[in-house]
Amino acid sequence: MNVDLLAVKPFEICTVRPPTENYGLSFRLTRNCYWNRCKFCRAYKFGAGFSRRSLDEVKKDVQRAKLIDNLLECEGVGLGTDFTETVFTRVGELVGKIKRLQQEAGIVEELEKEREVPDNLAPGAAWYLSWYKDTFTLEDCVNHVLSWRLGRGETCFMGDADSLVLKPDFMAGAIDCIRTHFPSIRRFTVYGRTKTAAKVRSLDDLKAFRAAGLNRVHYGLESGADTVLDFIKKGVTKEEHIEGGLKTNEAGLSCSVYVMPGLGGTVWSEDHAHETADVITKISPDYVRLRSLQVFSYTPLGEAMRKEEFTEANEEQVVREIRTMVEEIDTEAEVISDSAANLLNVNGKLPEDRNTMLREIDDYLALSKREKLMFSLQSRLESFMGQYCGITKEIYDVLRPFIANEKLDVMLMSDEQMGDVIALVRSRLVP
Questions:
Q1: Which end of the chain is less crowded, N or C, counting CB atoms within 10 A of the terminal residue's CB?
Q2: Which residues contact 207 (CB under 8 A, 6 or more apart)?
């Protein structure tokens, strides 16, 4: 099988996708988020608008991805290959060769477009934009397909923010095309809004999604408390959360929900925890994913903090919220801590692992104030290094005064200094 290198082109992939799809293939059925009002959210805030893609556009992207897949197959980069530097070096050289041949043939690569961003961009926002992309280069797309192959090539995420707005026939056409070109895929997933499942899609629609091959819907519940949902402008109520989740279950789709400890701030912290546990109990999702709040200065929630309309809960309060949820959720569900924003790795199945998870939490709560800070610093640095494969110069320069004999010596740091470093690292993590 020979691949025409002049025909290899970029396609649109999903920057924002569930952690379980980090090594999944992805295609955009829509672009960005039509709601885009949640105060805490930093995605889609820099000039990107919502749009629906045509089925022909999606099919064209699938064909482009398949051509890249064929190319990697020809190069001997097969499914399940170990993640080694050699593999990525080979692929980088291949991309360079394609670019040279296309330039010689007068073909101009479809480069990433200029973003519309505010002047004097906050450092955290600049960092985020170095990771978040709205359009993609050939190198981005080849590496995306490579990661899918290395991840065993069995999953596909179809984004962006709420694919349930699409009609079942569209979803069926997209899945059929993807499955035809990538027959090894065993799981298709999307993000959805519970409001859409509750009020836009009928039960028959959701069943049709399942019949088309959709396996799982990831919902951002964030909170079960109406006061919190209203304040953050989530655009959904507690009862709509429950209605949408129950319809998803009834349709035979796997239901995965994200909750955001800390989202109630100091004022609604207890209500947020209790009401969220109640919603989860009533929905009975397959998965409950913890994604602790991180307030970014350039979001509406960051502005609310500046205006003293919102006071951020401290790390201990957030941990106590998680404890309340673990203690009060009265249904079978798997709790997963798969976000870099989380302080603790609280994982397990309810109800059988409840006591184990509570012990993990209580061990942290029993620490002294200083010990909690040290624990947080270590946890945040480990999350950063895991997410970015090392420490950036920015963070190293902040840590430099506290490094002795090539090791970080936290005893050289005051509580205030440690808190400042923790805040910096947290602001650079992608939840």
A1: N
A2: 251, 252
**CA dihedral of 56, 57, 59, 61, whole degrees rounded to 10:** 160
- Structure tokens belonging to residue 174: 């997209």
Identify the residue whose tokens are 């079960």.
Answer: 224
Under the banding of pLDDT at 50, 70 and 90, the label for residue 418 is: very high
Characterize the bridge pairing of strands 333-336 and 348-350.
Answer: antiparallel
Structural contact between residues 319 and 267, judged by C-beta atoms closer than 8 angstroms: no
Return the structure tokens found at 304: 């609310």
Residue 77 and residue 98: Cα distance in Å, rounded? 17
Does the pLDDT value for residue 111 go beyond 70?
no
308 burial level (CB within 10 Å; 0-12, 13-18, 19+):
exposed
As a whole number of angstroms, the distance between CA 333 and CA 191 comes to 19
User: Phi and psi of 242, rounded to 5°?
Assistant: -65, -45
CA gap 293, 313 in Å, rounded: 9
pLDDT at 81 exceeding the cut of 60: no
Phi, psi angle pair for 262, to nearest 5°: 95, -10
| Separation CA 324–CA 326 (nearest Å) | 6
Domains of the chain, CATH where assigned: 1-157+166-174 (no CATH), 193-366 (3.20.20.70), 370-428 (no CATH)
Strand partners, 288: 257, 335
In what helix (H) or strand (E) does residue 149 lie, and over which residues does it extend?
A: helix 138-150
* List of E strands, 23-128: 25-28, 30-31, 51-52
d(CA 198, CA 237): 11
pLDDT recorded at residue 391: 86
Q: What are phi and psi of 15, to 5 degrees?
A: -65, -45
Tell me if the pTM is above 0.70: yes
Beta strands in 210-309 (DSSP E): 216-222, 254-259, 287-290
Q: What is the pLDDT of residues 198-224, one digit of tens each?
A: 999 999 999 999 999 999 999 999 999
**pLDDT at residue 428 greater than cutoff 90:** no
DSSP code string of 225-237: -HHHHHHTT-S--
The confidence score (pLDDT) of residue 125 equals 66
Compute how many other C-beta atoms are within 10 angstroms of the C-beta atom of residue 371: 11
pLDDT in tens, 227-275: 999 999 999 999 999 999 999 999 999 999 999 999 999 999 999 999 9
Say whether 137 sits in a helix, a strand or coil: coil
